[in-house]
Amino acid sequence: MKPIGKAISWMITGLTSVAGIMVVLLVCHVTLDVTMRFVFERPLNATILYVSAFYMVAIAFLPLAAVEEKDSHIAVELLVENFPARIQSFIAIVATVITCIITGMVAVRTGQEAMVKYASGAYSIEAGGKILTWPTYFVLPLGFGLMALVALWKAYGLITGRETGLSSLIIEDPYLGDKEVI
Questions:
Q1: pTM attached to this predicted model
Q2: CA distance linking residue 50 with residue 57, whole number of Å
Q3: Which long-range contacts (CB under 8 A, 24 or more apart) does 44-53 make?
Q4: How far is 105 from 140, CA to CA, in rounded Å?
Q5: Residue 9 in contact with residue 66, Cβ under 8 Å?
Q6: How far is residue 86 CA from its own chain's centroid?
Q7: What phi and psi, each to the nearest 5 degrees, are found at residue 172?
Q8: What phi-psi label fits residue 115: left (phi over 0), alpha (psi between -120 and 50 degrees) or beta?
């Protein structure tokens, strides 16, 4: 089970890294646009489109699986934390299965929409130029699909009681003996 969990963690790291790169690109693009606007009085065309359709979509949806992997989604545990351990485990399994089903359904539906946009060659016209927007539609099925896979793998681990191998990309510092999860 651990090799599969590690492979899933590597996929999560890859998508999260892409989202991080998009943050850097967004900052550079906006900085360049502001510089061009106020120093040279010639702003870049379509900055708002690139920020809203490309950068922000990737930044928001690609890391979903990383948040699920680390159990970092918002949770209200006022009542559940007082329940017996067996009931808490059961609720965790049910919640994880529901998460898997819902995110899987969202991934399928957004994947269908992405294929429609791809087939039609979806684009936006900005400043007289044609900018293809269909590639951005594939970000949602990627993010939600990997989140569904993580939830499925976590549910399997919860049900079987076995270690999933998720979040197990650990680097040991040979000098300090510290472990760091990446």
A1: 0.86
A2: 10
A3: 45/126, 45/127, 45/129, 46/124, 46/126, 46/127, 46/129, 46/131, 49/124, 49/126, 49/131, 49/133, 50/131, 51/26, 53/124, 53/133, 53/136
A4: 12
A5: no
A6: 31
A7: -95, 135
A8: alpha
Distance between CA atoms of residues 50 and 45, nearest Å = 9
User: Minimal CA–CA distance to 13: which of 72, 5, 153?
Assistant: 5
**Which token pair is 97?**
């299965």
- 13-48 burial, b if ≥16 CB within 10 A, otherwise e? eebbeebeebeebbeebbeebeeeeeeeeeeeebbe
Tokens standing for 63? 């890391």
- Tens of pLDDT, residue by residue, the chain (182 residues): 788 999 999 999 999 999 999 999 999 999 999 999 999 999 999 999 999 999 999 999 999 999 999 988 887 778 888 899 999 999 999 999 999 999 999 999 999 999 999 999 999 998 778 999 999 999 999 999 999 999 999 999 999 988 888 875 444 555 555 555 44
Cα 12 to Cα 151: distance, rounded to the nearest angstrom: 13
